Amino acid sequence: MKTYILTRILLAIPMILIILTIIFFVLRILPGNPVMALLGPKAPPEVVKAMEHQMGLDKPIIVQYGDYLGSILKGDFGVSAYTGVTVIQELMQKFPATLELTIFAMTIAVFIGIFFGTYGAYHFGRTLDIAARVYSIFVYSFPVFWFGIMLQLIFGVWLHWLPVSGRSSPFMIPNHIYTGLYVIDSILNLEWPVLVDTLYHLILPSVTLGVVISSIFVRMVRSNVILSLSSQYVVAARARGAKEKKVIFKHALKNAMAPILTIMGLEFALLLGGAVLTEVTFSWPGIGSYLVTRITYRDFPAIQGAIVFFAMFVAIVSILVDIANAWLDPRVRY
Amino acid sequence: MANTTNTNYGNQMLSSRIGRGFRQLMGDSSGVMTFIGLILLSLFVLMAIFAPYISPYSPVEPSGAPLLSPQWGHIMGTTNLGYDVFSRFIWGSRMALLIAVIATSIAAFIGIPTGLLVGYAGGVTDRIVTMIMDSVYTFPGLILAIAIAAMLGPGVLNISLSIAVVYIPTYYRVIRSQVSTIKSELYVEGARSIGAKNMTIIGKYILPNVLPSTIVVLSMNIADAVMTEAGLSFLGLGIPPPVPDWGYDLAKGQQFLLQNDWWMVVFPGIAIILLVLGFSMFAEGMDEYLNPNIGEKR
Amino acid sequence: MKKYSILMTILLLVVFSVSIFAISAKNYVIVGTTDKITSLDPAKAYEYFSDNILQNVMTGLVEYIPGTTKIVPSLAKSWKISSDGLTYTFTLKKGLKFSNGDPINAQAFKFSIDRAISLKQNPSFLLADVVKDVKVIDDLTFDIQLKYPFAPFINILAFTISYPVDPKVYSANEVYNGLPVASGPYMVKKLVRGQEIEFVRNPNYYGKPAKTPIILVKIFRAANNLYMALMSGEIDVAYRTLLPQQFAQIKNNKNFVSYVGKSPFIREVVFDVNVKPFNNPKVREALSYAVNRAKISNEVFMSQVSPLYTLIPDGMWGHKDVMPHYNPSKTVSILKSLGYSKDNPLKISLWYTPSHYGSTESDLALTIKNVFEATGLIKCDVKYAEWATYIDYWTKGVMGMFLLGWYPDYFDPDDYMWPFLESKASPSMGSYYSNKTIDELLLDARLVSDIPGRTALYDKVQDLMVKEAPYIPLFQGQQQVVTKPNIGGIVMDPVQIFRYYLLYKK
Predict the structure, then answer these.
(1) Per the CB < 8 Å rule, is C195 touching A168?
(2) Which domains does chain A have, with CATH numbers?
């Protein structure tokens, strides 16, 4: 098991490296001078030169690349050209927001997926099944931002039920930040109003993202449950006279869980893409809105840092999923 | 085999009866889906082709007072600068289809040959290229497209390119995995043993066998590309105005939503949904037609 | 049943928490904004929001009287300017302290000015260009020596770049990223980037304490979110930046009070005078007749900006309406004389940048395109580039005609003339305009120190500028503040410093 985990981690490194390399060179080959963007047009040439030197932009690209890889290995993502704050500090502050959003969205998606998927499978070919499939195709074609805007309009503007932007109301940030996940921090601080406020703010963004992603889960759960409904032990369970509900939820669904877990890992990338648009739509202060903002200013260290973080996030999740799968399913060889 | 699982459980339910009626009416559900998908698609294609004849106004010039609500003469209202929303709805299909098709073609033209050659060659090249492709494949596509689009700047080709990069690995993976199984099949081995050249084997024996599966991928990818393009222009990384583009219109409309000028957001949104719906229904139906077992592709 | 009871508890908690927000306490004011912080180190801060925060937590030798452009001593007790205009001698107030208790003395000023220059950050040039040396005389007295006499120098001393920092906390050769050590009315207690900033009173501030003990600035990503927060009562004040249509709607809403004032912010079309066809002054002149500023103001900005016919904003001395007003028939006649016709239209591209100046920018570009094309003799494309690329393009001469904005560094006509028209400065604006007579007049205006004398010189410059039309000034911005009716202390300031420390709840 240990060697298996180690190999998985080692395999993730080239992926991060490749993505980083692509971004690094795409950023530099094309026009757009980050120093000028920072200093503005008023800066005299010698200041521009000094800044370029300070940021290492006067060196050949290959050298810059080497330097950057070297410092990444040491965990140093550089200093944001836009704010002067270290990128790692900024990312550590933004990342929990993205994590919190994605966890909630994923949970919602999985629940919808299991519910609709299982019922669809059980009623294979009948109205409920068709409804589940139509739902999944329909929702799949929703642009995340459009759906988000519609929810904002209905629940925020018309009904005034839910807050439509940000992570918290004024003064409602947890007093001590331990994890950066406000849900957990507010519990640790025993600040109940803060917890409620946080959950309250999470509803619309995570429902938006969760529903759009759920389409894939519905299809996957459906087809997997259909498969396992035909498997021998389900037939055997039925033959033993087990109740239908038990057959479906205990035997069929449980058996279908392993592939679902794999899909969760695979669809995670899609979820993150959607998270960027969701964050922008809901003013959610995560890495997605961070990336979009910094792209405008060609903040190289920040953009690279955000991309590496996303890549690491994907890699870690897929490793976790693999490990969970291996642990759940003894047939997987290490 | 899927149908055999559907034994007589729950037949007493109302839903099953309605379902059966529905099926009798419309035939097999996958057929219905393909059909609806095709109708939607042809609607948009026709709209794109005949845009100059159908659209009541020019989409790039103001044609009325700003912010008119839907009414006679402007059935979808006007934008804040007085552009006719309906005309932009129609012309927008051109841009959406154009970019999606260019992007998907670029991806296919790079992904398919690479998959063929690398899959056929095998060995170290295979391992390295596959690793690179897998890295791009596992990375969130939209985020990669955002980064590349932002760096390339606006323009039809640039946007298409940044979307294409995301989908190259999809083709590569589908083709490569098939090639590596087919190449050890008997008839390929046979051809090789009688001294056929590598290129002949790829062109004559392998390519025709792997192409059908790419149709589904293609159609699914166009749907994704439409969505990605809308996302990019929503973030302000699309085609410069006044070129009609749904994503741009949606982003602009969002700024007027709170004044209850809903038509600027709702109609471009519906356009995107319907077009994506068309492609994905078509793909779904085709998938079931080509692969009757219910293993999920994509 | 268990499920229901949990659900009920959650619902109760929600109701409870909402009711918390409804209780308004007198000891804080919540300000909402869509601005972003960059750096809070005065040596690096160089955009509106960061500077404005510093203007509330720090102060300099001198400051503006709120609501005026009049400069008065702040940390300084008094100052003397030598007769050649090269040496400024400052005497500090006694017993000044930073928020952490460290003394604010002459050494701190020398350290801060030297540091701001040697760090070579964004705004460094403001001091580096003029300051030769700082000499400490004693704890309370020091000299600033200039490279050349520079009439607006005192205005630079009122700007954030000249604010003193604590030498014990700020490193001489690195940008500081901690919470600022305050010398002004407030200090920053908590800063969560992209979310909120909490200010509390600075106990060591020399002047009148801030009116309200706590100010919370809540940061929103987009105008829509700011607007909704205002409507739901989450914030007390909205400052920068609602969309024009949102502000227009609030103005008619009796639940809010709105304030407007002229802003020193101007917008203009820039011509790169080296790029064809804009190298022909006649073409530039023709285009300047075609710009319908009233239409821009009405349709894009809901009449919330004022048309501007020169580069110096209205309300500042030296301002003189010189540019031609809207007259498309003039455009037509000039273009016809240049050989353009309906079949051979003038083909040009107008560039804009989509996020730097807010989301109205594409509408502005489209409206200008439309008024150009309405003449029938012009075919105008619209193109855009993100800010970083945009700057790169204009420094490389890619864009012949593009939209730009200008917010002054110091409140003086010099800052609206020199950077635009002086030969060595105009490349940084992307215009590359050069005219010897104008150069001489501008230099003269820097050396002369009486306002009537300088006004006369700027009059001449503006008259000369019209003939060559290297820029088409478009409009002057508007400062807009919306508050709940129970909020007081809003001062519409010509220099556009927004003072949190004057806000209070009635």
Answers:
(1) yes
(2) 1-82+297-334 (no CATH), 93-285 (1.10.3720)
